[in-house]
Amino acid sequence: MTRDVLDYLDRHQSETLDELFRFLRIPSVSADSAHKADMQRCAEFVLNSMQKAGLTAEIIPTNGHPLVYGETTQDPAKPTILVYGHYDVQPPDPLDLWTTQPFEPEVRDGKIFARGATDDKGQVFTHLKSIEAWNRIHGSLPVNIKFLIEGEEEVGSDNLERFLKANSDRLKADVAVISDTSQYGDGIPAITYGLRGIVAAEVRLIGPEKDLHSGVYGGSVANPANAIAALMGSLVGCDGRVQIPGFYDDVAELTDQEKSQFAELPFSESGFLKEVGSGALFGEEGRSTLERRWARPTCDINGIVSGYTGEGPKTIIPSKAMAKITCRLVPNQNPDRVLDALEAFLRDRCPAGLKFEFRRFHGCEAFAFDPTSPWITAAGEAIEEAFGQSPVFIREGGSIPVVSSFQQILGIDTLLLGWGRNTDNLHSPNEHFHLQDFRNGIRASACLWQKLGNVQAWQVQA
Amino acid sequence: MTRDVLDYLDRHQSETLDELFRFLRIPSVSADSAHKADMQRCAEFVLNSMQKAGLTAEIIPTNGHPLVYGETTQDPAKPTILVYGHYDVQPPDPLDLWTTQPFEPEVRDGKIFARGATDDKGQVFTHLKSIEAWNRIHGSLPVNIKFLIEGEEEVGSDNLERFLKANSDRLKADVAVISDTSQYGDGIPAITYGLRGIVAAEVRLIGPEKDLHSGVYGGSVANPANAIAALMGSLVGCDGRVQIPGFYDDVAELTDQEKSQFAELPFSESGFLKEVGSGALFGEEGRSTLERRWARPTCDINGIVSGYTGEGPKTIIPSKAMAKITCRLVPNQNPDRVLDALEAFLRDRCPAGLKFEFRRFHGCEAFAFDPTSPWITAAGEAIEEAFGQSPVFIREGGSIPVVSSFQQILGIDTLLLGWGRNTDNLHSPNEHFHLQDFRNGIRASACLWQKLGNVQAWQVQA
Hints:
CATH superfamily of the largest domain in chain A: Zn peptidases
Structural class of chain A: alpha+beta
Shape of chain A: globular
Oligomer: homodimer
Helix content of chain A: 25-40%
CATH class of the largest domain in chain A: Alpha Beta
């Protein structure tokens, strides 16, 4: 059955590309209020595409840019898939570094160049077009589909969580699908089955009422700059391990199978060092770079400031100091418990005479999809069929808050199926999407619905 | 003999105050180029005062504001005293906080109010007037005198060291006298016989070429913010002791006599905490607050910065970090050796993958006058005679670079004889000088020449 859909897609490649170009021509820059009307126009484009694909769709206003939601129920016995994506794009600046205009898409060297080509219009479009093809050829789909495309992903998804909470029944699904990540490398399609979580905090130490003369008072009062350094410097040991007691207690260790999968991935140390512009590897002893980035928790200082930071010397004891910290979390770590331990660790070590302030920011849990789950297996088969190559199973070190929200609010896991590449200049000038990746993505999406449709409830519960 | 001089001074109190007022009316603000002509006028006032006191004097131009130099040789067999002071003053801002105009001196409540009243015109003037009195009454002085009054003390004395180096023969003296410090407290005159030295440095750690995403890369590259914190945090232990190996090796310990002198000084812990606006004492274990401030070396971070320091969280690994450090030194510590040890300590601990840069600033050695020296004894007797009370022997935690320069370039010690008080609002609005302190200062100065003149060469060499 999928064969007919794939044939249809092959025959309509040219129209599909034309349509994508229309999508890409809308400058849907969510960060720039000058593009408010373009955002509305883009939401309408998505609405029309959903309707053309056979979904019942609507535009949902928010306090910011609208959401577009569409759905079709085929058979309550079949799995329901929630597809998430976003129609907003990053600002295109600096414009002078683009070879062609960011909102005038063009194919060169087998790549579609435009802002949003891969992030995320091009990837969202693969799912819209594969569903349209299924409906055209068969008049039905092998799964029930819910489509949620937002317009604020590039500006923090401020209104998404509220929508999810208020509509959790309506959005009920068995699994989510997001295509907003990348393949592992050129010609190495991937399923991202794990993400790290995050907690963030700010520490302030308040000392003397004003900066003091370091000669007159030095040695006789607690110096907030020395103290913030001592506190922050005690967080990570020379062995790269976080020193907060209990920090690793809940950490889910990689299975032996995951370790060997990571070890088998092509990885160039020198390429990595060149990528980050650094002279040497660093990190937790006994762990590979991929393990450190994908599956081990961290404690990084993102910013620190105290006292005089201009030119030359200044002989003061600063009156206060501040530092910002983020910890990346791995599966099984509880964000609140980590923040509690971090706060207690620092508070205990704060010298007498300084006031200690600790502020918590919003965080999210890590995510890991069981790599042996039938959903993953189904997605892997779909990718293999479309790309002619079975995907590798990877994790990513970053956090995708919507995945955590799906987990917590809707209680579902997410299949992260990225058709693009890390080198596609996401968020940079000359963003592009390989034509071949776009076409393989549509085909993989078409195969995906069939494969996911075959997953039986008893497999998932088991 | 001194008795006649003191009587003369008593009889001329009113004229002396009038003359000081003329001195104070000249707005000799060295920091403000609008006052360039006033600086010249003020230098001429000092020149005239020197000549009136019987010195051979001249104005010496520099690249900045002029120096005024005067001398009189009485008897080569007698000691030669180098008196240093400055005629420039701090800017008077904020003007609206002054009760009367800063350059319109006025006596209220027994205090002379004016910018420069105590720092340093009033104190310099005590020495000029006492010498004038000696010459009027006796036509001679009990010592040879060299007077060096500069106009750039408040802006860093940029041209002084060059002048000292170029004129070290001409400035040859047995001991220097500076009245630019304070009494220990109300009614407690003091001789400051020790100052701390200082070294200053800046450390930079250069990591990844640009700020990195803390999710994608966190845990796999050395974070310059974590590293600067770890380096700076390792400098001082929880016991308040500097952790640099060898840091205390050369430190001259206080004698038992000095310790008991410090312990006998009136000192209020709660008053001190209120003064600095802090909630608790802190410092090297087993040392009193005065010992910590005056006689123990320190390692203070004066500034530190890395990464994002604005509002809210930012998930980056900063590409670089910087910190500024000053160490206060005590007698016998060598500034270069301390900087070498500091640099080695930090360089050794810098994690792989970060570039370490260390920049040294200008520093100076600590100073301690042997408190049993005949010069100190003579000064103590002079103060006792004039103030009716023997002085306490104190140190100060700050550094006075000219004292270090006199030591290194001219090879002489300095008697720091402060007539003013810490509470005289130096550098602040409503600066003042107690009339009684001014008068006692002149009398003490008159006695000082006699007492210093009695010091025999064999006493000093012994």
